[in-house]
Predict the 3D structure of the following.
Amino acid sequence: MAISAYIENLFTYLDRFEDRPAEIDTEAFVQTYSGIYAVFQALRKERDRATEIDQFFLSKIKATPLNKSDLRQVTVQLLVTYFEVESDVDGQSNQAYLYCRGQRELRQDAPFFESHLAPKLFSESGLGQNQRLVEFLLDEIVRYMNRYGSRIPVDLTPEQFDRLTESSKFLMLARRRLELGKDLARERGSLEHQLLQFETFRKLAARGRIQRELLSGWDYLQTTSFWSRLFGAIGDSLGRLGGAFKSWRYFRHVIRERNTAYLFYSIIIVLAIALAIWVPSKWLSYTDTKLQQLEQHAGEIQAQSGR
């Protein structure tokens, strides 16, 4: 099938989604999108054909307002951006891209994807709560940002992560999975491991079904017992405190951090309560023993005096 036929089918799917969202053939949509993208690299060498496809893209895009639906805007903006960066080598096949960029509130690609397209994936009505579409388009945004955008911050802290918007949090997690691997939650000291300990993923999952299924699919909603979480938190914090004891100044800094401070002072309180119970009980036991010894000694003295 010619690429123009694939493009025609893609816009037919978009029209159908806007009229009857529940009736869209999601897998056919994904395969059509992927079929269009598959020829982009080859078009770098076929300049006349690339120009023709660019014009065909432009005619289809202009036929319907880009903002008619979130799915149309996300799909078209993503696809023509990929087309421009991977197919246009001489500035002759970028008219569809320039038109779409002119419709944006923000011209730069990666920042626009993060601040305007990604939030649409998580809105209640954006993609009709179609989980497969959300996951596919999120992967496409992530793939573009990791390849053509700025590098991800490898040493991102939980505090910095908390300051991100909700969609940017999921975008960051997905980018890290693609760049650093899919087992980050099992790596002690990683951002994901810390977020798991702080139950950040559980809180994010409570925001809605889309968020919950994404995190579940990434294996970030692990079911653990209270005791395993407690011992894990104690192990992590004691490890940090062990290193902190080497420097008094650093020790004071560590115990002022929220989670470490909670655990440190909780341990102090538990120890104080335990000592408050143990010391009097041991003292009472000691006095009872001494009293019994004195009574026994007094009895022996009386017995000897009576002879």
About this structure: Residues 41 and 86 are 6 Å apart (CA to CA). The chain has a mean pLDDT of 86. The chain is about 70% helix and 0% strand.
